[in-house]
Design brief:
Layout (H helix, E strand, L loop, with lengths): L2 H4 L2 H15 L6 H8 L3 H13 L3 E3 L5 E3 L2 H24 L7 E9 L2 E9 L13 E3 L4 H7 L4 H7 L15 H14 L2 E4 L7 E8 L5 E9 L6 H21 L7
Antiparallel strand pairs: 1-2, 3-4, 3-8, 4-5, 6-7, 7-8
Helix pairs in contact: 2-4, 3-4, 5-9
Length: about 260
Amino acid sequence: MTLRQKLVPAVERASVILDLVAEAKRYPTVSDMARETGLPKSTVHGLCTTLTHLGLLMRRSDQTYVLGPHLLKWSNAFDRQTDIAAEFAALWDQSPIVDKAIVSLCILDDLDVVFIAARQRSALERFAVRPGMRLPAAFCAAGKAILARWPDHDIERAFRSFPVPLTERSVRDLGALLEEIRQIRSDGVAVEIGQCHRGVTNFGAPVLNSLNRTVAAVLISIDVEDVPQSVMRDLAAYASALANRLSRRLGAEAGP
């Protein structure tokens, strides 16, 4: 089977429409796009209606189309993730290896953390990291580290509906989450034990950009819950140091 046969036709056609609008020397109409693509006018009209509803196109008063604002969100996200991921990889290459741990880079998407990069010496038995993996920010140390940079009223507004716990150790409600957040602000590092995966301890620290805004978090994961206090301190300090170094590489004036 060829690659073209595997493509989803509707998605491919939508991509063609967006490319056409992006490259057009004048704002195209549905008729223009149907003529350029060879697609039925009704098909192009349906595609444009859907893309407009999703914010990927905008229809002007003269019934022509321009690219929509949602594409800017994707563009900014791509730039942000690409830059941070590249700096994370470069920093990892210069850093001492953490034995039997996974070091990940996560960003916040709505109320989930999304894993965009990871480095590891060996896989963990209970915690398999892959790019694009999502976890609720309320339970993951990376998400808690980012949320700790938010004002309480923003957290309260965001978590009016609380996510379903992932394990028996997951924080249960907004009040308990806020208690954890206040401790994280005091410590500077989020430590989460078994809240996302049984038997896994995570350490999260926020990453800042040149405007001192939180753009990501470093997450260190180890395949055990019963961690000696000395090891806890060392891993928390490593997460904080790595996040601070990455923040400085992104132009932040100082660590979080």
